[in-house]
């Protein structure tokens, strides 16, 4: 039986969801994601039950950061119940909803270790758009590069401060505009037309992001770069974003911001710092390598376009 999801299904869906994650997500964190999804412009989740047990689910959501007119689609079947037609059954049901919504295209994400799921998605018309790499930095024996208590940190004329050190009334508004400016030059957002303040607010107000975990690079009073850290658990953080204005690239600013991010995570007694980057983002990948990040299995970002060339 295929039906719409309700809150009582959350734990069962999470168990299936975690089969596609390199690091298991907590029930509390998954609940927060559900709450964020409910505030999105469009969200539907279906579950498939067999003998009163949920064995698969499907999502369709319009989330911030997608290209204009695109929806994000997910279908996942419990590994113990695959090759029984459940994924195809969900796809047919989801396809009816997709036809009603008339999007310009769909996007989905698949672990790059799950070749069978990639082939299945390709059979439904999806094609590879990007390859995203995950990396982890072990901070157990980390030697801090900077003294974070002595702000501003100054290197080669550029100052580095956390957002919590800034006292401007419009500091968050300045941050949103800087973030949007940097996103436009980031491969992750190529082709995304609707990068607006609401998207910046959504990203930077996500649970686990705090003002003291956002660091700004400044040329005098001009904000020219930033790095953002986000709590994952008590012992893990995610370096969720790092960017530098195009006019200031090639001066080592991104490298310093990434080092500050590692030092900050270490100061919070974090053991593991995670990050992910697209394969086309060669500059950041080189910085990660120099810092000692260890590559992990990544994700294929796939798309199906409904736009006729």
UniProtKB/TrEMBL annotation:
Pfam families per UniProt: Acetyltransf_1
InterPro entries: Acyl_CoA_acyltransferase, GNAT_dom
GO molecular-function term, one example from the UniProt record: acyltransferase activity, transferring groups other than amino-acyl groups
Keywords: Acyltransferase, Transferase
UniProt KW Aminoacyl-tRNA synthetase keyword: no
UniProt-listed CDD domains: NAT_SF
Domain N-acetyltransferase positions: 1-144, 161-307
Protein name: L-amino acid N-acyltransferase YncA
Source organism: Thermoflavimicrobium dichotomicum
Biological classification of the source: Bacteria, Bacillati, Bacillota, Bacilli, Bacillales
């Amino acid at each position: 039986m295929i039906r719409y999801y309700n809150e009582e299904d959350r734990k069962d869906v999470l168990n299936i969801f975690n089969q596609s994650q390199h690091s298991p997500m907590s029930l509390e964190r998954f609940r927060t994601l559900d709450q964020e999804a409910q505030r999105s412009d469009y969200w539907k989740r279906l579950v498939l039950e067999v003998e009163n047990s949920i064995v698969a689910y499907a999502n369709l959501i319009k989330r911030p950061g997608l290209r204009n007119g695109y929806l994000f689609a997910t279908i996942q079947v419990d590994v113990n119940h695959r090759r029984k037609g459940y994924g195809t059954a969900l796809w047919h049901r989801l396809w009816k909803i997709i036809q009603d919504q008339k999007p310009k295209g769909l996007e989905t994400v698949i672990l790059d270790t799950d070749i069978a799921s990639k082939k299945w998605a390709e059979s439904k018309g999806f094609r590879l758009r990007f390859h995203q790499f995950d990396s982890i930095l072990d901070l157990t024996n980390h030697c801090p590069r900077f003294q974070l208590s002595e702000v501003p940190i100054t290197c080669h004329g550029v100052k580095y401060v956390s957002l919590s050190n800034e006292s401007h009334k419009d500091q968050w508004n300045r941050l949103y505009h800087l973030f949007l400016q940097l996103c436009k030059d980031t491969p992750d957002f190529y082709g995304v037309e609707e990068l607006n303040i609401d998207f910046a607010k959504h990203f930077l107000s996500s649970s686990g992001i705090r003002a003291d975990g956002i660091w700004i690079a400044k040329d005098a009073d001009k904000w020219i770069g930033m790095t953002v850290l986000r709590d994952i658990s008590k012992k893990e953080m995610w370096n969720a974003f790092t960017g530098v204005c195009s006019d200031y690239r090639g001066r080592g600013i991104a490298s310093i911001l990434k080092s500050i991010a590692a030092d900050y995570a270490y100061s919070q007694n974090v053991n593991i710092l995670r990050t992910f980057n697209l394969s086309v983002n060669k500059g950041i990948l080189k910085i990660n390598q120099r810092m000692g990040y260890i590559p992990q299995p990544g994700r294929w970002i796939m798309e199906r376009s409904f736009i006729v060339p």
